[in-house]
Amino acid sequence: MEFRHLGRSGLMVSEISYGNWITHGSQVEEDAAKACVHAALDEGITTFDTADVYAGTKAEEVLGRALKGVRRESVEIFTKVYWPTGKGPNDRGLSRKHIMESIHGSLRRLQTDYVDLYQAHRFDYETPLEETLRAFDDLVRQGKVLYVGVSEWTADQIAQALKIADEMGFDRLVSNQPQYSMLWRVIEAEVVPLCQKEGVGQIVWSPIAQGVLTGKYLPGQPPPPSSRATDPSGSGFISRFLENQELLARVQDLKPIASDLGLSMAQLAVAWVLQNPNVSSAIIGASRPEQVRDNVKASGVRLSDDVMRAIDEVIGEFAERDPAKTQSPPKRP
Asked: Which N-terminal residues, if any, form the signal peptide (predicted)?
């Protein structure tokens, strides 16, 4: 396993991190979830990403139990705040009240005194940005959070936050967590250039495009049983790819490229995102330990310019590049 700085910070993270969106607390049993976490540790992964909203807070609980007994200083635990975790009007968003209450809930569920990175899971249009950033800064001062970041913010939103932090003396954002893959490249036009300039690293999710880039979804055929496409909690994200039969056919054309490199399709997909110098870590998910062991082999892989061009020739116009597609909702849920 190789390691990278998280943005311009001094924090080192494994360039492949383990995330438990969908899987822990919902898609797989806890024993299987723990087996995946320990497979990740065995393979050198030290960075673990979750969120309070995953599986209705259960994912944090499962991760906390899975990491129990592991030397705390040896791992980096990331979580997020924004989406509803209760029925009340203040059980959501990025208000000071919700942030302060949410971090305490996350720490309790994760069985830790602090998280290495606390991320705003989306941009909150109904809370002053200064309020959010001051609350984050207070948590850093209290030692409950070491670094702060965001997830799926636009370039303008990230720029606003950095300007306010500089003006008010708050801790700056060190990371953004966007969707990024061969098929979903919306961050390349605006987010990446800004973040490279400002020292903000990308922790990318879905580098395998919810499994599409493994090649297991075949054109004209139903999804495999128990796949991501059949899980209601994740099928909405994958449907945009599965509806395009020509895209699925093009993905099959990546197989010879992967084979020539001695890589699986998943390894090629993960290695591809890691070629971007602004990417600090690529998040993988898994329902079985062998998936973890397969994906981590992408660490340290260097793809030549010729290989990168060959991939672009295959994917071509099917890669989504419109920055307006950033996953940021118009208002708080």
From this structure: none
Q: Return the CATH number at 135.
A: 3.20.20.100
**How many structural domains is the chain composed of?**
1
In a domain, residue 330? The reply is no
Domain annotation covers residue 332: no
Q: Tens digits of per-residue pLDDT, 16-52?
A: 999 988 765 565 688 889 999 999 999 999 999 999 9
Please indicate whether residue 33 or residue 99 has the higher confidence score (pLDDT).
Answer: 99
Cβ neighbours for 44, distance < 8 A, ≥ 6 positions apart = 1, 14, 296, 299
194 occurs within a structural domain: yes
Active site residue 114: no
Distance CA 269, CA 286 (A): 15
Q: How confident is the model at residue 323 (pLDDT cuts 50, 70, 90)?
A: confident
Query: Domain range holding 297?
Result: 3-325
Within a domain: residue 65? yes
Which pTM does this prediction carry? Answer: 0.92
